[in-house]
Amino acid sequence: MAWISGVGDTEFGRLEGETPLSLMARAAADALAEAGLERNEIDGLLCGYAASLPHLMLATLFAEYFGLKPRYAHALQAGGATGAAMVMLAQRLVDAGECRNLLVVAGDNRLSGQGTDSAVTMLAQVGHQDYEVPFGPTIPAYYGLVASRYMHVHGVSEADLAEFAVLMRNHAALHPGAQFKTPISVAEVLASRPIAAPLKLLDCCPVSDGACALVVSAARGETRLRIAGAAQVHPHQHVSAAADLADFALADCAERAREDAGIGIDDVDLLAIYDSFTITLLILLEETGFAPRGKAADRLRAGIFARDGLWPLNTHGGLLSFGHSGVAGGLAHIVEAARQLAGSAGARQVRQPAVAFLHGDGGVMSSHVSLVLRRE
Amino acid sequence: MSGADALAAHFWQGCALGELRYQRCRACGAAQFHPRRFCARCGGAPDWAVAQGLGTVYAATRVTRAPTPDFARLAPYDILLVDLDEGFRMMAHGAPGLRIGERVRLDFDRRGERALPRFERLGGRS
Predict the structure, then answer these.
(1) Residues 236-275 of A with CB under 8 A from B
(2) How far apart are CA A376 and CA A368, in angstroms?
(3) ipTM over 0.90
């Protein structure tokens, strides 16, 4: 069995004077301290990629910088699903007996080190170089195309999307490290400036600096927090090659993760779902079984996803308001779920959750990882 | 033409000549838009074909926040996914305000460094 023995993070936002490595080191030091481990006890290292520090061997680079000599180390790339994919791999490596204490870490300083304009230009390049990028799309444009089709087929409105931006902002207000905490209204989301129709500024996550880390261990630890189930699916890379923008067939991935964990959907107490855009969050909730098609916003309005609801959702504020620092942004959902399950979420703490369901999305609904975390 | 290989060059040369080139598999008959030396469905050998340029809007967005200064000069512009009658889907520019389900006809926009596929409302200006 594989257990999360410690988590760590930095605040998200504009963090001047840092580098991806220095941010990763801060989060990693916190995670090691929480796990009660010394550097020489870390025998495995997984990291993501950093847009501000492209490198062929980021894991080894970080190991040297931070002072680790792991027996197993490499970087992993699955876009926004990288954080969840690293946790899944860490679980498998611990279960296989390859590692006893594996550090999972990601950090980036896209905001101060790269800037929003440069990040937007760079990110658009995940599109097809020959058959998409020549038309001047952006990541919001790819998701704007997804939104247009999904909303058309399932009767979702722009106000439905806006509700999720408002909820994420409400949740971020209680996190001391969140990038955006000022409350917003549905009307303000709807009136925010257009980016890629139907998506507006407040439907989109920000560009942030920040880092997150966690330690996955073979020993149970005090928090008794087990990585109980995981599954992946990778249906396409490019939005123009996706089979159906109104049905991504992710139910099977979510169900396999729950089966792997031996739980049903009714056992879930907490949700941590990738939310690069409001539409991403709405679709993933509906795909993974937490709302019927086209009804996620109705469930939100009924309070299901609130901190005191049946399925509290992204209680740190998600990518939309806590912030999006590349791979660390996706890892932040996992760090938050771990804190909630461990009962250490402070003012944000929800009532005694035992089972969290998580889902990460990379590319344009391209790479998917579902996870189940469980307090034993 | 960054990232272009010989197959992509063949596609874009077609655009310059006013032709929308795609592939059809000799073995299974599947239409394939991103050209390859093989059919991604069955592994068979594809042949080049030319589409009529008629299709239906599958998805649509209007980009206001452009990715580069060059595209910022064009903004706002509409990007579509169009289902061509020959059985493949492609990204292209669209006339302003085209909506999902509308029938469209292909044209080429020669303003830039290459002739960019752009769809107009069927029956609208050619």
Answers:
(1) 238-241, 245
(2) 26
(3) yes
